[in-house]
Design goal:
- By secondary structure, the protein is mainly β.
- The chain is built from no helices and 16 strands.
- A six-stranded antiparallel sheet has the order 1-6-2-3-4-5, with no helix packed on it.
- The protein is flat.
Length: 186
């Protein structure tokens, strides 16, 4: 493990701080009017799965943990778990708890990144936006594009999202994998 100064942290790095290992999700450099600069980092803990904000002084040292990312393609699911295929066509099976409640984002052929720290699987990263088809929603009405009103729609995976009134069944939409909200029509 290598130690770096907190000002050199980058989004996506895996770190150890005060005995806890996690991944840096976001960084903000702050310089208050009085005192030294500080770094606000949003960290997702591998032990608890929760995110928290940690404040580092600009001179604090942080341990970087060696991590590996492997790209996998989703194939199918059954009672044994969720099955993914790597570049060499080997199948890897993940359990629901590994996906952290994101099973409703899995569509055929989606590419995900599996994060390993010290040879142990610690997380699954989805693409920022996922395209899905609307399977159920109330019909759209001409002229509904002028208002910001929304309605509930069901996507091909069963995920329920709020969409604008002009969206119809059969339309393809982009969904944010971070908060599972409608981003736009494709």
């Amino acid at each position: 493990m290598a130690a770096i100064v907190a000002t050199n942290l980058k989004r996506g790095q895996c770190i150890t701080y005060k005995g806890e290992t996690g991944q840096v999700l976001g960084l903000e450099h702050r310089t208050p009017g009085k005192g030294n600069a500080l770094i606000m980092a949003t960290i997702r803990s591998f032990q608890t799965g929760k995110t928290k904000d940690i404040r580092f002084a600009s001179s604090d040292k942080v341990e970087i943990v060696t991590s590996d990312k492997v790209k996998l393609e989703y194939s199918y699911s059954d009672q044994g778990g969720y099955h993914f295929m790597d570049e060499s066509y080997d199948t890897i099976t993940l359990q629901p708890e590994t996906l952290s409640g994101n099973e409703d984002l899995l569509i055929d052929g989606i590419q995900v990144e599996i994060l390993y720290v010290d040879g142990k699987l610690v997380g699954v990263e989805f693409p920022a936006h996922i395209e899905m088809e609307i399977t159920e929603s109330a019909p759209g009405v001409k002229g509904d594009t002028a208002t910001a009103a929304t309605k509930e729609a069901v996507l091909e995976t069963g995920l329920r999202v709020q969409v604008p009134l002009f969206i119809n069944p059969g339309d393809r939409v982009k969904i944010s994998s971070e908060d599972k909200k409608y981003v736009g029509r494709v």
